[in-house]
Amino acid sequence: MKRRTFLWATVGTVGALAGLAVGWAAWPVRQRLHRRDGENSTAQLFEPNAWVRIGADDTVTLYMPRAEMGQGTHTGLLMLLAEELDCEPAAVRIAAAPIDSVYNNLAAVVDGLPFRPDQQGLLRDATEHVVGRVVREFGVMMTGGSSSIRDLWQPLREAGAMARASLVQAAAKQWGVPAGECGVARGVISHASGRQLRFGEVVAAAGADLPIVDEYVLKTREQFTLIGQPLPRIDSREKVSGKAVFAADVHEPDMLYAEIQFAPQRDGQLQAWDDSAARGMPGVVELVQLPPLWGAAACVAVIADQRWHARRALDAQFPQWVAGPAGLFDQSLIQKTLATAIESTDAHVYRDTGNADSALSRAAAVVRADYEVPYLAHAAMEPVCCAVKYTGTAATVWAGVQVNDLARKAAAQALGLAEEQVTLVPTYLGGAFGRRLDNDFVAIAAALAAKVPGRLLQLQWRREDDMRYDFYRPAARVRLRGCLDAQGRIDAWQATSAGQSIVAQVMPRSFGMNAMGPDKTTVEGAFDQPYDIPNLQVAHQAVDLPVPVGFWRAVGHSYTAFFNECFIDELATVAQADPLAFRIAHLQKQPRHLKVLRFAAEKADWAGRPIETADGARVGRGLALHASFGSIVAVVAEVSLSPEGRPRVHRIVTAIDCGQVVNPALVTQQMESSIIYGLSAALYGQITFKDGAVEQGNFDTYPALRLADTPTIETWIMPNGEPPGGVGEPGLPPVAPAVANALAALTGRRNRRLPLIGA
Known about the structure:
By secondary structure, this protein is of the alpha+beta class. The protein has 20 helices and 28 strands.
C-alpha cells in the first residue's frame, strides 16, 4: 500500500488559499454582520446589521438564511437573537434573507477540513482561518451538516447585542443619562428613575438618526434566560393549522402543472417519441423534451391546466429510450467493483499511526472481517417540488432548498437569465436529509416554465420519481484487520474501504469544477476515531460506478460507525471482555467520549449479556459510540427475535454531548428523529439496480420504520461549556452498530451487512 499522507493535500490547499487572504486582514472583524448593500434606517425601521430589523410597532424581524425542514432550526436561531436582544421570542418574525455572502455557511466547510481531533497547532489554525475567510466571500448559503446553530452561534448573538446596545444608546441620549444606567428586559428599556421605552418607541423617536453602536458585550452563560430553555417550536402552529407554505402550496389563478417521465437509466437517451395521442387530450398546453439538467436524467414532460390532465397525457405518450454508456448494469457489477477495490494496494491513506502492517504480521492471531452497506435513498416525506413564474425577463422561484444561491443559479441557467434576474422564495421543506442540496428539480421546473411565460408552473415529482432519480448515499465495503497485545488491548487496526466519492460528483454538477484532492467524507468517523490504538491505518479506494451519489444524513459517518463499532465488539469478544469495559480501556485519553459512554450505559442499566423480560423473552443488548459534527453520542439498544427470527428493537437509550444546548426540546426531537431514520436504514434500507435502473419505487419496496415497530427512545443530554455541536445528524451513526451488536450478543452470529432484515 502506498503511504501517501492526507495532510500533504491540506498543505497545498493552505498555500493556494494564502494568496487569496492577502489584504483581507483589513476586513472588519465583524464582517458577518453587514451585507454588501448595507442596511438602512428610516423613521419607522431600524436595521443595525444584516440580521435584524426593528419596527416602530415593536416587531423584530430576523433575516433567516437557513432552511426549516422540520429540524427546528428557525426556533433555535430565533432564540440566539432574542437572547442577546432581550426581547420576547413571540415578538420576532422570520423573513427570508437575501442572497448575500454574509449569510454563507462557514462552519459546514471548516468542519469538512481533513484534520483529526489530535491534530492541533499552527497548520490547522492557519487552514481554518484562511478557509473561513475564503468561504465568507465565495461560499454558499447552505443548510446542512448539522451546522446551523454552530455557524450562527456567534453572528446572531452579536447581531442581537449590537441592536440592543444601539437602542439603549438612543434611549439614554433621549433621557440625557449614561447608557450604562439603562437596562433591557422583554423589549423594554428602563432607567432607575422609572422611565421606560419600548423598542418601537425608541425607533419611532430617533428615526434615521438612531445610532449604530459597534461596541457591545455578549451575555455570559450565567446571564442566559432563553438559551438552554425548551421553547416550543415557532412553526408548529402553522403546520398543525395547515397555514404553513410548502412549494406545493403555492397557487394562483390560471396556473399550470407539469408531469415528467425520466429515462429508465440515469444516462438514457430518447430514441423516439410518439406524442400524437397526448397532443389532443383535454387541458394539454405543451409537450416538452428536456436533456439532462444538473445531474438529472433526460425526460419528457406534459404541461397542462390540471395535474390529472398532465398525468393522463403523459401516460398516453410512448417515448422510447436507449441506455447510455453505463449500460444495463446490475448489483453484480457493484458487488464485484467494491470487492475488488478493497484488495487494492494503492488506496489513499488517510491516517497512518505507528506501523499496522508490521504489528499485524507478527501477531499470533489476526481478526479479519469484511463489512458492507448498500445505497440508500433520502425518502423524505415531501417529494421534491418547485414552482416557477417566468416573465420573459425575470423569474420568481418557490422551492424548499438547502442551498439558496445554487438554487437560484440552477433556475437562472435553465432560463438563460442572469442570477440577479431570479428571485428565490424559500418555503418550508417536508424533510430533506441532504437531497435538496442538489437542485436538479429546480432546473427542470425552470426549463419547463420557460415554455409558458407569464403563467405560474408547478412541478412536483411523484414518489417513484423522487426515489428512483435520487442522489444516493454511496454503497461501501471495508476490510478490517486487527490484533490484540498480551494485555488484551488493541495493538493494531487496519481498515481499507471502497466506495464512491460524493465530492467528486457534487463539485462538477453543482459548481462546474472538478474536485481537488481526496474526499474526507469517505472515511470520516474512521480516520478520526477516538480509540487509543498504537498502530492504526485507515485507507480508502475511490471507485467509479454509474450511480449518482450525494450527501445523505450523517454522510460517511452513517456507515463508518457501523464498520468501526461492530469491529470493536468483535475484538472485545476475542479479548473475552465486556464491550463496555473494552471501550473504556481504549478511551482513557478521551474524557468527553468516556463520560458520554458511561452515562448512556448507566441510564440503560447496562449488562453485557442477554437479559430476560417479564414475559420470558430473551433480549440482547448492544452499544455503540460515535462522534460527528461536533457532538458525541452513545447508544444502547435492546433487541429480541420473533419466533420467525425477525429482529425487534424494544428500547433505545442514547446520551449526547453537544456542547452548549440552545433548546433541549429540539435536541431531544432531533435525536428521536435521527434514531428512527437510522433504524429504518439499518433494518430495511437498500437501493438496488437491475438493468441499470433502480428497483425500489415507494415505501412498499423501500420500507420506513412504522409506529408499531418504533422502540421506546430515551434521550439524555449532557450540556457543558463547549461551543454548540450539531444535533440533526449525530444521533444516526451509532444506531445501526448498536442494534447489530445486540443481535450478535443475542444469537452469537455476526451480521456484517446492512440491512439487518433481509440481509
